[in-house]
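Exercise (ungraded).
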Amino acid sequence: MSTHADTHEHSHAPGLQHQFDNMQQQEESVSIGMWMFLVQEILFFGGLFTAYLVFRSRYPLAFAEASNHLDAFWGGLNTLVLIVSSLTMALTVFYAQRGNRNMQVIMILLTMFFGTVFLGVKVIEYTDKYNSALVPVHGLNKRIKESDAKHEGEPAKKEGAFVIPLIETRASAAAAADNHKVVPNPRGEFQWHYGQHVFDYAMEKEKSGKPYLTEAERIGYFSNGAFDPDKYRDKIRIFYFIYFVMTGLHALHMIVGLAIMAWLLWMAFRGTFSAEYYAPVEMSGLYWHFVDIVWIFLFPLLYLLGRHFLH
Amino acid sequence: MNSEATTGNGADGTPRVSYIGNGSTLRSWLLTKDHKRIALMYLISVSVFFMMGGLYAAAIRLELLTPASDLLETATYNKVFTQHGVLMIFFFLIPSIPAILGNFLLPLMIGAKDLALPRINLLSLYIYWLGGALTLIGLMQGGVDTGWTFYTPYSTTFSNSYVMLVGLGIFINGFSSILTGLNFIVTIHTMRAPGMTWFRMPLFVWAHYATSLVMILGTPVVAITVLLLAIERAAHVGIFDPAIGGDPILFQHLFWFYSHPAVYIMILPGMGVISELISNFSRKKIFGYEFIAFSSIAIAVFGFLVWGHHMFVSGQSIYAGLVFSFLTMVVAVPSAIKMFNWTATMFKGSITFDTPMLYAMGFMGLFLIGGLTGLFLGSVGLTVHLTDTYFVVAHFHYVMVGGQVIAYLGGIHYWWPKMTGRMYSEFWGKISAMLVFIGFNLTFFPQFILGYLGMPRRYAAYPEELQVLNIFSTAGASVLGVGLVMPVVYLTMSLINGKKAEDNPWMHPGLEWRTSSPPPTENFDTPPVVTWEAYEFGEDSGLDIEGARRRHQESVVNA
Amino acid sequence: MSDNHNEGHIGYPGYIGVFAVLVVGTIFTYFSSFWDLDGMFFPGANTLLALLIAFTKMTFVILFFMHVYWNSKLIKLSAVASFFWLAIMFAYTMQDYLTRGSGVFGQ
């Protein structure tokens, strides 16, 4: 008797669940369900974008300063990688609709390849942040003992950093020069030793009579009327916090996406999908494209701030 | 429950197996995809959380019996009221009507075999259990003392309690409510029976559609907020800490973007239940069907525009305060539309005073008071006096308990015969409904006065001249407690010795009453085709009108 | 879902075309960040331009890669609604932050 409901399950078309009358109803339900899921995902990331908006609008200079030390080349490359993976994903659906098993498998493999490349680049970037004391969490940066830091001036190559800027900004040049300088960091704290180029630039502008600092900045960067590098660093740390939470959550979504792709690959390999039944491919595609869209926004908002100030 | 295993004969004459009788192993319950079984499991779990939250409430009221902080230390008191809030809001009020009554009735009401995504439905129950378990572990470890709002920077920097575990529990539990809402929206869009047009749906379904919108659009924001809070607490980055450049008000914005609409998650389903009860027990087509339906949607939408009224004195800009205050007044309009329509429905109806109707009428009175005092708190000037006093406590208890809990109890009584196949004791039902109403008013009305006199919330001690009103409140709470425990007893008893329920004991026209009690696993023997309008009591409804008239006569004579 | 659901795509050349738009948009975004639009127009003009491009890219992805162009009104509505709700969250949060301590309503 416990299988009462189950006996209905596969009495109709293959893949039709018991609660539906026909395939069309099922596809429609699954499609609406997926879109509702995406809506909640958009608002999930939306909370972070709100946090970004609030802090960016209050401390634009610190955000520009911090952003200049993200490598826009890697960010841009990753954007392109994701776009290619989106294309291959769209083509997976295209071939699934045609019941072309071999091309489906190839396209899924390509999508997974580009997804993995994206994550690889993220690892390179995160490693660079780890080595440069830019992870905003106490103790999660590379620990450099006082004794190791004494070789100042020696050309110590910065590990994990492959700086290939297409156009070099003053900040990235300064960062390249800073590579020779090893700052002690025995406890692995967040540190900022790249100066305040953007702030100086803005103060220069202020001299011409045009107010350049926001009201929050007039309070937030100064102590007793003088510029306070520590308070400036705190704002920069908030940028890196938002950067890590946003890209971290995005990378988490990528990893989930890769798991879905692996499952899809197995299904496609077995020839599950046909012109009549390809909803799982389409739904996975929606998810993948959504993750791509998040990155389309993250790239300009995180990597490309204030680059014009400094080149 | 052997007697419920079969419920009469099906269309083909063979004995019909009800959803309860369809398998009795633990596995058949834990791995079920049947929305009705999942609803029953929700009923049990939610009741457990409700009783735990109730115990904390009892502790609060006992402590406040005397002006001094004598029963509980102040630190313990902080934990007690926090856990009362956390359990009641996240684990009782939010899932109460949607996950129990909504889960059970929504497919029945629209003539579907199940929810559109049954496995997702089961998943949401497991997520609820996981979130609940983590929260309970947090409570057993020592609990939280931040208040259910987890305001920063106290929760991130200073509190020494188990914020992380409880926060994680709430984060996980949020996805349970997202999945429930998602499932409802899909079901309402795609699973309606032939003839069940949008404007033939019961208003209960409309209310759940609006609730689901809030769940999908709001809950992810609180999830990310709690996540940020957890990272901030673990790593102390400073995003919410003003001492190192962060902004605690940002937390409040993000938190209330969800938590104010969540207030509507806690009242809209109740309004849906009340629409059913009022119309059916007045035996009259509901007045202004479209207005009630769209006012639900309007409340859901406007609910997202008013969150700043929780932050009038938090340092938010005065301009924002004015805008939020104005929009708060606007939300009163759709709520009032509902009240007027319910009243107009009862006008010249043939009303029977069965237990569910007593709850429904209690709801109208209590929600009216709760809603109107909300306007006091929504006006930006008066709030300065009333913020964080017992006036606020009384207001939201009038809406939450007087609204949602009363509606929930009314709904449970009304659909109890459908869910279990047994009638509850009408005598005890009426007594407990009266006790709940009297006890509730005695508990919370004095708190309006206390708040107006300036007694702040969240303190274990208070000045001696306020003791009389506090004694009233505690006395009322004990009456309320008795009124709330009674249903647990007599509803459970009804499973053993209750009268067997007919398929349609109330002679009501809804689709859920046109299948057996309790329904079979696939809900209907033959897929229903709807040819009548919602709340149709006339000749077109296909109801036994003579039988209904007779029953009404009898109930009037008995009364 | 519309009846021509199974035909809901723009074909191979169409996909390549959308892809080309996305790539061009990305490269343009990258290089536009070096122009001093903030100085030429108003602070934030650079980001505004980048966001406009991002919105265009997103629209192409949603309409053609995600097949919303061929989908039912409900799906279109839910896509629009989610961004509308984001806009609510942004707008009502910022109307607080942008009116703090200055102007007619400031302290």
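Further reading is listed at the end of the chapter. For now, observe: Residues 266-501 of chain B form a domain with the Cytochrome C Oxidase; Chain A fold (CATH 1.20.210.10). Chain B has a mean pLDDT of 91.
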